[in-house]
Amino acid sequence: MFNVLKQQKGVRKGLYSVLVASVLATSLTATLVNAADEPGTGVSTQAVDPYTVSNIMLNPGADETQVNLTWYSAATQPVGTVVQIAKKADVVDGVFPVATAASFNGTSSAAVTGFFSNKATITGLQESTDYVYRVGDGLDEHWSTSYNFSTKDSHDFSVMFVGDPQIGAGGNAVTDGAGWANTLNKATQMFPDMSYIMSAGDQVNTASSETEYTNFLNPSQLRNLPVATVVGNHDGAVNYKYHYNQPNESAQYGTTVAGGDYYYTYGETLFMVLNSNSSNSASHEAFMKDAIAANPNARWKIVTFHHSIYSAASHATDTEILNLRKVLFPVFDQLKIDLVFMGHDHSYVKTYQMEGDQAIKGQSMDNGVFVNPKGIMYLTANSASGSKYYDLKTTLNDYYSDVKSQLKVPTFSMINIDHNSISVDTYRTDTMAKVDTYTMVHTDMSGLEVTTPPTKKNYAVGELLDTTGLTVSKINLDGSKTPLPLDQVTITGFDSVTEGTKHVTVTYTVAGVPYTTGFDVKVGTMVKIYAKQDTVIREESPQVDFYVAVGKLTNVNTIDVTFKYDATKFTFDTKSGAELLDKTNGFLQANETAPGTIRVIAGFQEHPLTLTEYSDLIKLSFKPIEPIADNVQADVQLDDVIVNSSSENSDLGAIFDKLPSSILIRSYKDITDLFKDGKLTSADLSVAIDHYRASSTDADWATSKLADVNFDGKVDLTDFTIIILHIFQGK
Fold this sequence. Notes:
Helix content is about 15%, strand content about 30%. By secondary structure, the chain is an alpha+beta fold.
């Protein structure tokens, strides 16, 4: 996976001494003397000069398989610049796994007095994987502390967007740094799965202040999350280049002493970052055209820069802002940019959809969702640290402002991106309440060829796809994460078991219209799709999970459920295969009463169950005996159910016939009947839309999760798509 470079061990010890500048006296440093003392690393017992590391910073790499790093070392020219990375799963007893680690060499250059700026790039990262890394000069005695870093799903991800931390603008870098750290702490606690952070610039107040940089870089999250920074007007010194390592940075376009324009991709999204300290619009235009030409398949195009051209506070009528607006909006319109994120004015503005410098109103649906809208939404962030706020102008003709506010509270936004939609949710950090939201949806089928389905077999409901020599985890609608029922899918393209990349062609129908698309998968890296009737079970590991949903019960304190399954194909671990989801309320025991028969008894001692709607209660996990077999199918049968009431303590019998809605194995057909009339109609979609944007973090999730038909912890357009597909099928 990695480009592994041979590690330098036990050489050139004692060649330099440490020169620590007073300007970084308060910096986050780690003095490392014989730090790498784990076995087998070739560590010398001789005393060596200390090696200090400070201001470690992650930036996005050129794409989701890379990440860039920067750090300071306090010494003469270091003997090398090296970063080591390994999978976290290989860590044993807290010892960095040298044997499985990969090393990447970088470069160093003189920075502020007594310090060198070190830069390196890690490549070959795998998605959804936890890593550990450390940095140094390549000598065993000089490794830094190990830090964690995790990659995410690049086709369904979240980015934290912040504006103007501007450490030092409040008069005290330490206080401003504490406000910045508080924002990061609260955001990462609420959204632990974000992929990285995007800043609209002015990370510091004084461009040459290393003390301010130290306080900006101090939060521990910045060792775990990349930050895509923008050059702000307060960042315009060479110190900016000492601290950040930007991918695809232009040496020709948008250049100042702090660097030039740069771009990176993440999944299907192209992010273009402009240095708006350069007012040369022709230069920015040329850069964006080159970036788009280099990424012709990018579905979303997002631009970030500092000087907001559509804001509503102190800078809104500055001459340089009005001039910048005049030259930039035509370029953005021409290049069909989707969203623009900015800062500089220390107040919040979300524009209408803008085209030709005109607001195009009335495009959103009743729920605030924009479907295939015309124009571009521009968003200006308020301060993320609270170091400085600007009041809104009361006499401003801000014809472009849809929503504007000055809360005098640090805020941040979460940008959520998948194939079909981008949403932006903005939060205040004192209460963590959502203060604004925006969603744009692209429903077009661009790039898909409408064709007659191939003559190969169309798989019926309940059949496993013929994936000869290969197993598949997801079948997607137009590349999204929306799973399709199996009776709509035909798979072709698997012609051997040879390891390597295979191209999968998916043929599906929507409202009777056939479409085809394709994607690449690697042999042995994906898992199977299992199906029973119209239930599609999707897992990231080769096992099958079923959920027992319970509803319409009163004062129930025990449930006794028996299942049957094909023991020739699957195994069931009675210790770990059955899980009670509400562990705080009850307990559970599972026993195999006969081959292929499992009995699960759950009791609820804290409070009996009273339910009016379905709620997942028990999770059952089965593992295939032969994971690579091409005929494995999960066929789990609900055999018997006994429910006891605490009020009567009477056996209600096998209620699957008497009360069919009380207990069931959740399937798409069952859960999409939200209106509970035994049919699938637009009434079910209406019920789901009532819960739009609800998530598992909400207080009323017990009610809202009924509309979460794909069990991902949120109610969104994916759930609506599943419901609509079933309505069209007439099931």
